[in-house]
Amino acid sequence: MPAVPFADVLDRLIDAGPGPSTTAATASIFTPPLLGPSHVYRFPKTARPRRRLSSAQRAALDTFRLAGASLVDDYLLSELKSAFRTLARQLHPDMHPEAGDFKRHRLATEFASIRDAYDALLKEG
């Protein structure tokens, strides 16, 4: 099999652009041909936990979703933490020092509901 220029490999990996690379001649770096997709190692999918949510946890998950988080019913703990941190950055009153008193009070109320929902979702069973 002919060797493939390194620049062509980069072009395929980055944007899957067709045609030879313009830097192939100047790079002078050659690599062996890329292996086909059948030789690519695929990591096994991790099993998601099957969660039985109580009514309070279901309400907490709905609170997260209404606030803008995209959590599924069988969320991972890392996804929950990431969603909480994202919402906390958006809703914490200290992140909005230019806001007026009314808006800061509304943000504080929303942040408190998100924090309570997070605590409810952390509880197992």
List keywords for this structure.
3% strand; mainly alpha; 5 helices; flat; 50% helix
Summarize it.
The chain has about 120 residues and is mainly alpha-helical. Helices cover about 50% and strands about 5% of the residues.
- Using the coordinates shown, work out and report the CATH topology of the largest domain: Helix Hairpins
**Can you count the helices?**
5
Give the name of the CATH architecture of the largest domain.
Orthogonal Bundle
Q: Roughly how many Å is the radius of gyration?
A: 24 Å
Strand content: under 5%
SSE string: EHHEHHH
Distance between the termini: 58 Å
Largest sheet, in brief, is: 2 strands, antiparallel
Helicity range of the residues?
Answer: 40-55%
Strands, count: 2
Shape: flat
Q: How confident overall, as mean pLDDT? A: 77
Widest sheet: strand ordering: 1-2
The CATH class label of the largest domain is: Mainly Alpha
Regions with little confidence, pLDDT below 50 for 5+ residues: none
Q: What is the count of distinct domains?
A: 2
Q: Which structural class best describes the helix and strand composition? A: mainly alpha
Question: What do these coordinates show?
Answer:
It is built from five helices and two strands. With 125 residues, it is mainly alpha-helical. The protein folds into two domains: 4-39, no CATH class; 55-122, Helix Hairpins (Orthogonal Bundle), CATH 1.10.287. Strands 1-2 form a two-stranded antiparallel ribbon. The longest helix is centred in the C-terminal third of the chain and has 22 residues, at 101-122. The radius of gyration is 24 Å and the shape is flat.
